[in-house]
Amino acid sequence: MEDPMGLIYVRLSTFNNSGLAWIEFELELQENLGKASTFGDGLSFDQRRSDSDAISSDSFAEYSREFEPYDRLLFRNGKVDPLEAVSFSFLVTDFTPTDEFYLVLDPRIPSS
Predict the structure, then answer these.
(1) Domain that holds residue 36
(2) Is 5 helix (H, G, I), strand (E, B) or coil?
(3) d(Cα 8, Cα 46) in Å, to the nearest integer?
(4) How far apart are alpha carbons 59 and 28 in whole angstroms?
(5) Contact at 8 Å (CB) between 38 and 69?
(6) In which residue ranges of the chain is pLDDT below 50?
(7) Is the residue at 43 inside a domain?
(8) Total domain count, the chain
(9) Strand (E) positions, the chain?
């Protein structure tokens, strides 16, 4: 849901149909697909707050945010087995001059 102040609350549920366990999960905001978000684009994972109670996951115990030169949210210290679902909640600050943006999902698997 978007409010007039440029905040969007996101609750994302995704299903692991990869056949491999996910041990981390990264989300990246992009105004233009394939191009890293920059400070001036007005898009972030609620960058104005240093700690946010709105960021959570039912499968990962910790998270970290990276703001520049990207807008990334990395969930870690958990696991999502194949054929199981995971949920994430977070705020997105959107002051971009465009009507759409992209949320790139990057589930991480164990390296061998």
Answers:
(1) 7-108
(2) coil
(3) 9
(4) 18
(5) yes
(6) 1-3
(7) yes
(8) 1
(9) 7-15, 24-30, 43-44, 56-57, 60-66, 72-78, 85-94, 102-108
